[in-house]
Write a structure and sequence with these properties.
It is built from nine helices and seven strands. It is an alpha/beta fold.
Length: 276
């Protein structure tokens, strides 16, 4: 697939239902490559690549969330056949961008996904000022990077500064974000979170219910804020079922066998970089 914003790891990316994947702040979409390997022929994984990372290292950063949405939706609509089934999955900051991409695809082009799945992400109305500490101070920004377990063996001083700058650029995007228009999505919305996530709580995940006119479900998984990166084996069978509900002859196993059971949501309201 020759594209600037979209990256695929299948020779015919639109030969199967698509899951459009948006990574966390400061990260490229390359870590979704392993998802394609694990999903096999169930789904076609297409990553969204923001400028300034991986194969777009030299590209200037986008000016706004709106600019990202405009570019991604335009490229996807040109490439994906009308009526083709797809999901949108956004991790952390990628969830916010994924929400706006979902709205744009539906409202402008009449293309709603089978479901919108957001992981480790607070709802859009909670993003006002959320990235200010990352933009204005080094301590919070560096702490966010350190929380991912990236030590001296992983990043030298120059690489660390580059990673921090990419995080800062994405934080600026979130800082300028403004929710406009009708917020509710007519498609099903699923909000996924880590059981030990201290950044995005279960109650905040439940806030996505107000954006789900087509049905809402919250699920919790083992792990913390980075559970989608660290425990993909628990997520992928659920994504496969949402995007390709027909019974499959082969399962989507984890690295060492069948995926672990996922606990149903309670009745109470509740690669390498990841951000809020």
């Amino acid at each position: 697939m020759k594209a600037r914003w979209l990256v695929s790891w299948r020779p015919e990316p639109y030969g199967r239902p698509v899951v459009l994947c948006l990574p966390q702040a400061g990260a490229g979409c390359g870590w979704f490559r392993s998802w394609q390997h694990r999903l096999g022929d169930r789904l076609s994984v297409i990553g969204v690549q923001l400028p300034g990372r991986e194969n777009r290292w030299a590209d200037p950063p986008p000016e706004s969330v709106e600019a990202v949405v405009e570019a991604v939706t335009g490229e996807l609509v040109d490439a994906m056949p009308p009526g083709h089934p797809f999901l949108v999955f956004g991790n952390s900051f990628g969830g916010l961008i994924g929400y706006e991409i979902t709205r744009s695809l539906g409202l402008r082009y009449g293309r709603w996904p089978l479901a919108f799945v957001v992981a480790a992400c607070r709802p859009p109305d909670s993003w006002a000022g959320a990235g200010r500490g990352l933009v204005e101070g080094e301590e919070e920004l560096a702490g966010l990077l350190d929380a991912r377990g990236l030590g001296a063996d992983d990043l030298d001083e120059d690489s660390r500064e580059i990673a921090l700058e990419i995080l800062r650029q994405d934080a600026r995007l979130s800082l300028d974000y403004e929710l406009r228009g009708e917020p509710a999505l007519p498609c099903p919305v699923e909000a996924w979170g880590g059981e030990t996530d201290e950044t995005v709580t279960a109650a905040q995940l439940d806030g996505w219910a107000g954006y789900a006119a087509g049905g809402f479900r919250r699920r919790r998984f083992p792990g913390g804020h980075h559970f989608a990166v660290e425990h993909a084996e628990a997520l992928l069978p659920l994504l496969a079922g949402l995007g390709d509900p027909e019974p499959a002859s082969e399962s989507v196993p984890g690295p060492s066998g069948p995926p672990p059971a996922v606990r149903a949501p309670s009745a109470n309201p509740s690669h390498r970089a990841a951000a809020r």
